[in-house]
Fold:
Amino acid sequence: MSNDWSVTISSGRNGYKMEWDDVLDDGSTAHVFEVIEDDFLDDLKHHEKLLFWVADFFGFSGSKHDHERIKVVREKRES
Structure:
């Protein structure tokens, strides 16, 4: 069995759709998808959610206890 895995991300009118094949407990494979919808009150929110989702899916975001980790930070430019 290979350790390779991937996800396909599509951008649509209402946000993002992530699709991947998952191996079930019985060894069979299921095609799975998840959707991140636009947040019309916050233009960056669904993009931010996508970045967190990808980091979590591939397991490279780490935890607060890790010596090093990747963070997604939103910065607001001061006027």
